[in-house]
Amino acid sequence: MTVVQVSAGWVPLAAALLLTVATAAAALDGVLAARAGGRPLGEGLLTPAAETARLFRQRRRTTVAADLPLQRIGGAGLLTAALLMVTVVPFGRWTVADLSVGVVWFNAMDVLLWAALWLAGWGPNSVHPLVAGHRFLAQALSYELPLMFALTTPAVAAGSLRLGDLVAAQSGLWFVVWMPVAFVVFCAGVLAFSAWGPFSAALGGGATGGVLAESAGVDRWLVTAGRYALLTAGAAFGATAFLGGGHGPLLPAWLWVLVKTALLLAVLVALRRRLPVVRPERLTVPAWLVVLPLVLVQLLVVSVVVVVRG
Amino acid sequence: MGLIGRLAARRTAVLVAEVPGWARTRCAVEQQVRSRGWRLADSPADADLLVVCGDPGPRFAAALDLVWAQLPGPRARAQVLDPAGVAAALDDAAAQLADEAAQRHDAGARPDEPPQGVPATDTSIGADAADAPDDDAPDDDAPDDDAPDDDADGAAPPAWDDPHPGSTDQDETDQDDGEAPGADEATGDSDHDGDTDDDSMGDGDMSHGDMGDGDMGGMDMPMPGGIPLAGGAGDEELPDPDGLDLDVLHLPLGPVLPHWPAGLLLHTTVQGERIVAARAEVLEPAADAPAGGSLHGTPAGRWDAVATLLALAGWADTAAAAARLRDAALTDAVPERESERLARRVRRSRLLRWSLRGVGVLPEGDAADRLAHWLAGTAHGQPITLQQVADLVTGLDLATARLVVASLDLDTTAREPVPVEGA
After folding, report:
1. What are the chain A neighbours of B320 within 8 Å (beta carbons)?
2. B398 touches chain A (CB under 8 A)
3. For A21-73, how does the pLDDT look when each residue is reduced to its tens digit (9 = 90+)?
């Protein structure tokens, strides 16, 4: 299966697709929340629409001596990074940008989030967002290196950094089968850079509001929507790099990508309900002493297999 | 009201402020919020409604006014004095939110600039009432068996009303000279961190310390928004465990803060995100709370404590389940099967245990142990004084400090009124 780069005219459609899937993720989260609260599930389905209406109706809010440009750059950074991430992910036979360094591009975009969340915390000139921004950086110190090596693993196996080549290399066997550790670490990395679930210490997973403690209206919407978009982009990348991308019987390739992305995304969204938040200061030791060596061993195993197979 | 307004109303976010003694009312509000499909707000910026449970004293009321000024709008405010009035008050508030003409008027009448606070340490607000606590009968003491009992450890009784308790942390000299700016150049005038911060999520001024303006000759320092920049504390800076030279600020936590003991105001001095000194007080209600307003020592109180701690641990699902059990316990018996299932689920979580282990260590155990006791329904340890609370959070980062406070399950209605020394 060869991947072709489509014209730039399709970019809005790709963005709309990302936002649609992200909305579905938010609706799923709403349904799960409704179930936990003993409410009718249908009510949860409307959560993204209701929250969007609420925030679009709400006034923006400023604080004393806020650094507004930086705050807004940071706030918009999440959605921007997510949109840039999916540009390299092939949707079946088509891709928006067929970069020869697609994996590195994805990694670079997730590093952008360090700045985005920190700036969003810095901007309001207020203690709680600022502390939360720094807590995100502390968390990033724990997840970024394991995530990088987890991203390296499929690239080594495929002998290429182009996502189309990664998909082609999985025509026989999906990468998740022989690099499960890298896959799990990658998924944890997606949760972490989206500040989601057990890694949501910076975004109110502890009820302080975190980086969002001073944001209202459209500023809050951008960060919230950006978070779902990041989860979606991460799931799309994971489906492509580990779950075989468009490979699968019967269905067309693009539909397989969509199905795999949706399933992985649903698992990531649901994980939030299963687990409490891991405090960033407690995360560092296991991340560096357990996870990092594990993912390096995984990389070593994969490299040896690649060399032996020639 | 258009489609947008109707949709928005489905997700109304409610910031609940509980005055000491009105826990039952707060629980009724939370139950109503849940049953309407609304949600509880994380911060004033997140809120559409401010619901005050109880009759706040003057200082608490002043803090509430500042919180009110921080709601972005459309906004509405309600006060509820007993559980029976909750539904009507929320209906009324929802109608206010939907009234677009009134909301436009409210928006137009608000100042363009964000509100500036008054110092959290300013005890002069409503001084007449606050300084005469003697008429506040300690009527709540009797039923609360795990209340901070005054003579439990033979120490002086906690001075709930005393803004300047003699036992203040010795590092905290700066906290006490709020009325004497200039007396202490380096860290003087705590005035600058206003009550805006009372909800601890206030406007920008909270992140400014109070440092530096005195000894810098004042005008040389940039003062964004009229607030001096945070700076090092100079000679008074405490050694940082990481050897960093960090800015020092004064940050009040409470009294309006979700998942926080009612009326607790914790004055903290933070270096980076670490609390290096703390002093706790309780803001009083204006009138005596209705009898039986406190939940402490009841099954509902235990489940309330569980829900609070789980919410702060970032586990929304189990926190919601615990809150539902609490509401069941308020009206009826706790359903055996559900409570067993929740207790098992929480106990099985290694992640939670790992997260709470070593947090808020008292002689009889840490936060994880106390949670286990609540889940098992067994009584736990000694009551605790405000001074002990302040000592426990000193040296911790803000997030851990909040976990510690939640794990103590303070009863702020139990108090031993003492005459306040002249300020």
Report:
1. 33, 36-37
2. yes
3. 999 999 999 999 998 888 888 888 999 999 999 999 999 888 888 899 999 99
pLDDT of B231 > 50? The answer is yes
Cβ <8 Å between A277 and B273: no
Cβ contact, residue pair A61, B37, below 8 Å: no
Tell me the pLDDT tens digit for each residue of A259-304: 999 999 999 999 998 899 998 889 999 999 999 999 999 999 999 9
Residue A194 structure tokens: 């989206």
Q: What's the Cα-to-Cα distance from A124 to each of A65, B114, B246, B249, rounded to whole Å?
A: 8, 12, 19, 16
| Share above pLDDT 90 across residues of chain B, in percent, rounded to a whole number | 42
Q: Which amino acid is at A157?
A: A
CB contact under 8 A, A64 and B107: no
Flag if A58 and B355 touch (Cβ within 8 Å): no
CB distance from B43 to chain A under 8 Å? Answer: yes
User: Which of A38, A58, A277 is closest, CB to CB, to B74?
Assistant: A58
Instruction: For B30-81, write each residue's pLDDT tens digit.
Output: 999 999 989 999 999 999 999 999 999 999 999 999 999 999 989 999 999 9
A135 closest CA partner among A195, A214, A222, A83: A195
Q: Are A50 and B7 in contact (CB under 8 A)?
A: yes
> Could you give the CA distance from residue B413 to residue B138 in angstroms, rounded to a whole number?
8
In the sheet that holds B39-40, the strands lie side by side as: B39-40, B13-18, B49-53, B76-80
As given in the structure block, the two tokens for residue B216 are: 């810098």
Say which of A59, A205, A276 has its CB closest to residue B351.
A276
For chain A, say whether B89 makes contact (Cβ under 8 Å).
Answer: no
Q: CB–CB of B11 and A51 under 8 A?
A: yes
- pLDDT score recorded for residue B156: 39
Report the chain A residue with the minimal C-alpha distance to residue B254. Answer: A208
* Fold of domain B3-109: Rossmann fold (3.40.50)
| C-alpha pair distances (Å), B402 with each of A114, B76, B261, B308, B314 | 25, 28, 10, 10, 12
- The answer for B 91-110 residues in CB contact with A (under 8 A) is 107
Per the CB < 8 Å rule, is B201 touching A214?
A: yes
Contact B320 A220 (CB under 8 A): no
Q: What is the pLDDT of residues B130-149, one digit of tens each?
A: 343 343 333 333 333 333 33
Domain assignments of chain B as residue spans, ordered by start? 3-109, 156-269
- Residue ranges of E strands in chain A: 4-5, 94-95
A23 and A15 Cβ atoms separated by less than 8 Å: no
Among candidates A58, A206, A278 on the partner chain, residue whose Cβ is nearest the Cβ of B72:
A58
Q: Pick A276's closest partner by Cβ from B3, B37, B313.
A: B313
Mean pLDDT on A175-203? 95
The answer to whether the Cβ–Cβ distance between B313 and A54 falls below 8 Å is: no
Both tokens of B172, joined, read 């905290």
Residue A273: how many other CB atoms lie within 10 Å:
17
For residue B223, what pLDDT is reported? 64
Average pLDDT, chain A: 93
| Cα–Cα dist B380/B370, whole Å | 7
Nearest to A134 among B227, B273, B310 (CB): B273
Tens of pLDDT, residue by residue over B355-364, are 899 998 988 8
Q: Are B4 and A55 in contact (CB under 8 A)?
A: no
Place of tokens 């969340």: A117
Q: Return the pLDDT at B235.
A: 54
